[in-house]
Specification:
Layout lengths: L1 H48 L10 H4 L8 H14 L1 H18 L5 H14 L6 H17 L9 H26 L6 H7 L4 H14 L1 H12 L6 H30 L7 H11 L4 H36 L8 H30 L6
Length: about 375
């Protein structure tokens, strides 16, 4: 009797140890199963939202997705109409941006403008003559100004101020247009005060876009080094640079939409990036062409406004030599830059609204 009674507790304790040792194994198995099911669910959801697969040919009938957009000139006219209808509001924003930029960042250098103008006059005197020659010289001066030659070297603080001003102008324009399109009558003061809430989220999306632009930067570096190469090597590197640039443009097309989506209340950066990616599926090329047109319209606006200013400045100097010290062209450059910043922000936002209004299924 004592022997049998001594064995029973030993067997019970062994069963207890076996149960306790099997519990961690069950927990790990349960965790792996839940992780697998969650991952599979996310993958299926992603496939339903993004039906295209890399390196697989998609039939044309499967990737057509509606996007009712007006023509390039018509859409630009629509953007200009919205801005002109509320010209006091957006004109005030342009003035605020221009004043803050002139105080915190500075304007283009009049001395640099005079040096560039003199250099172009001396080098092209025997080539460019007459009225068309003067227009060509003015075009060269404008192209030099667009490249930033007139702008003095900015300190780190001025670069930060410049970035903050562009960001706040972008956010304010989006906030004002969103209020206008829902039927409200916003004030500029309210836009400036309230538009800065998603600034951190917007900066994170902008940082993500900088990462997406790395292939484009590599493509530019390759293009710069092609001058030292020749033959088949030059062709191979040209193709590689083109592919890298296409990759960046492919990614950045959706991220421009994410810059708008992230300004919605309660929106997180990654949610905005994911939603923008879903939005541009099957529409990426059409949206990219609209953004390319935006860049082209900005260049044309620069040419139309600044070239006559340069010609007028050159004529004024012949009549009044002391006018050479007047910063006419730098001031016009500041105004044009302010207008272009507001214009580009409004253009991208209204393009986003066109895409949102055409709520088609993923293609």
């Amino acid at each position: 009797m004592p022997k049998s009674s001594a064995r029973k507790p030993a067997k019970a304790s062994q069963k207890k140890v076996a149960k306790t040792s099997s519990k961690p194994t069950k927990d790990i198995t349960l965790f792996l199963n839940q992780t697998w099911m969650t991952t599979a669910k996310k993958a299926n959801t992603f496939r339903s939202r993004r039906p295209h697969r890399s390196f697989r040919l998609t039939r044309r009938r499967d990737y057509i997705r509606s996007l009712a957009l007006p023509g390039y000139f018509a859409f630009s006219g629509e953007v200009a109409g919205v801005l002109w209808k509320h010209k006091k509001l957006f004109g005030g924003l342009v003035i605020v941006y221009g004043l803050l930029s002139s105080v915190l960042v500075g304007v283009a250098s009049q001395d640099s403008f005079i040096q560039v103008r003199s250099l172009i006059d001396e080098t092209s005197r025997s080539i460019l003559s007459g009225a068309w020659g003067e227009i060509s010289k003015a075009g060269l001066i404008v192209a030099t100004g667009i490249s930033g030659t007139f702008t003095p070297t900015l300190t780190e603080g001025q670069q930060i101020y410049s970035g903050i001003l562009v960001l706040m102008t972008w956010l304010t324009t989006v906030w004002l247009l969103r209020s206008i399109l829902v039927g409200k009558i916003p004030r500029l003061r309210d836009g400036i005060y309230n538009a800065g809430s998603p600034v951190i989220a917007t900066l994170l999306v902008a940082l993500y876009m900088l990462l997406q632009a790395i292939p484009l930067v590599i493509a530019v570096l390759i293009a710069g080094a092609l001058g030292t190469l020749g033959g088949a090597a030059s062709m191979a590197f040209s193709i590689a640079a083109l592919l890298l640039a296409v990759i960046s443009f492919y990614w950045l097309t959706g991220s421009f939409m994410a810059l708008i989506i992230v300004t919605l209340p309660g929106m997180y950066p990654w949610q905005a990036i994911r939603a923008a990616g879903d939005m541009v599926v099957g529409r990426r090329l059409r949206i990219l062409l609209r953004l390319v047109w935006l860049i082209a319209s900005i260049v044309m606006f620069w040419m139309v406004t600044v070239i006559p200013t340069v010609l007028f400045n050159n004529w004024l100097i012949t009549v009044l030599p002391t006018a050479d010290t007047w910063p006419i062209v730098p001031i016009v450059l500041l105004v044009v830059t302010s207008l272009v910043t507001v214009w580009a922000s409004a253009y991208v936002y209204l393009l986003y609204r066109k895409v949102v209004d055409d709520d088609a299924d993923p293609a």
